[in-house]
Amino acid sequence: MGSASSSETCDVLVVGGGPAGSTAAALLARQGRKVVLVEKVHHPRFHIGESLLPANVRLFDQLGLRSELERIGMRKWGIEFISPEHAHSSFLEFGDAWDKSVPYAWQVRRSVLDEMLFRHAASCGAQAIEGCRVTQVDFDADGVSAQALMKDGTPRHWRARYLMDASGRDTILAAKMGCKRKNEAHGSAAIFGHFVNARRLEGRLEGNISIFWFPHGWFWFIPLSDGSTSVGAVCWPYYLKSRSKPLREFFADTIALAPALQERLRDATLIDDMVYATGNYSYASTHACGERHALLGDAFAFIDPVFSSGVYFAMRSAFGAAELAATELDHPERAAAARRSYRELAHKGPKEFSWFIYRMTNPSMRELFMHPKNTLRVKEALLSLLAGDIHGSTPIWRALWLFKAIYYMTWLRAAPTAFRAWRDRRRNVAQVGPTEGENVLVER
Ligand SMILES: Cc1cc2nc3c(=O)[nH]c(=O)nc-3n(C[C@H](O)[C@H](O)[C@H](O)COP(=O)(O)OP(=O)(O)OC[C@H]3O[C@@H](n4cnc5c(N)ncnc54)[C@H](O)[C@@H]3O)c2cc1C
Fold first, then answer.
1. Distance between alpha carbon 16 and the CA centroid of its chain, in Å?
2. Span from the CA of 47 to the centroid of ligand 1 (angstroms)
3. Measured from the CB, is residue 21 less than 6 Å from ligand 1?
4. What atom in ligand 1 is closest to the CA of residue 16?
């Protein structure tokens, strides 16, 4: 540790020790670079976002962490969909995707996963500092200066050659640069808690995520390996704002709007009586990287949790940003091309997923998920997208276009209902207020 006032130096300063920051720090430290990873709180810390994608598995392999994930995670082979308008449940399995080589992912408690990734970065050689909030960053011709404050009030100051913003929804660079934009096409809020004794699927399917639609959005039901189950409602922000009673009662009332879920929770109790709520979090930055800096994971964009893509995008962007930083530091003459590639990577995930996210509450989309058919391999392509297999060479794009065409035909066939859902969605989006930072409200 340097003295309180002296400036410390490093090649890369990474702000934020979540999945994005810890992954980037590990990759750069493994290259022998002097990396400092700064996290404002102490691990293990609570975070929501417990369902991972098969595409994550390859990234954990590259980090050498698959066996750790097998130890802490619960295998997730697919997704169960439950709709109030259908008598049956629909099961989609990742093993039926176009590329069948990674048929599962994991459900993980994020406090455990994030601590593991943070300690892994340290074991790779990064200086990993907890309880230290970066309060200001300034760029100049030679590099970047960062001011930070330790929890006990001690100031720290770094000079770095490169800065990675992995500060999640705090979006420190996007806020500084004024390039954070509310998503005009979407809005989303959530209320959630953890239960014991929830009735899960049986056997091999126990670790699957279940999605229950209800009148104001949808619920997740995520079984964790310690026996607890994470349950959350993702709803329009207006619905959360309509709350006139304590969060816990409001959550119970909301669960009652999804009778099939309520039935699974009949004998369940909330752990520690804790319920969390978070306001509109759908946003993106117009800027992904520039000279000596990159925005990673949620510090760049977040749309909606419905397809469990957040941790994957965060880690995938970290792999891309680590490559970008290495190029910029070692071969500045190639920096412009490297930045173009990183911009493409950062935009691709949110862009490909958003078409599906925006339509997820439309009855026509529900119909396709409840009766999935593999005409011309559209189901395989859809499953590949849901598995996060969008950054490689799996040739899913023609079949995904076909899926979209089938969706529009289904929409036309059910035009009055589909139109009403479309119009309600438009109204709901118009009512959405500004995005809120890391404003998790907790009630016990
Ligand atoms: C309701 C909800 C449900 C979700 N469900 C899922 C899911 O099932 N699956 C999934 O993959 N994703 C899910 N997500 C998304 C997922 O949680 C995020 O996309 C993911 O955590 C992003 O990782 P990150 O590393 O970019 O940011 P984070 O995990 O948020 O990490 C950022 C870190 O930066 C630290 N930090 C912030 N500011 C500073 C500062 N100034 N100085 C130092 N440190 C700082 C924070 O303390 C934090 O630890 C969900 C999101 C929401 C809102």
1. 15
2. 7
3. yes
4. 34
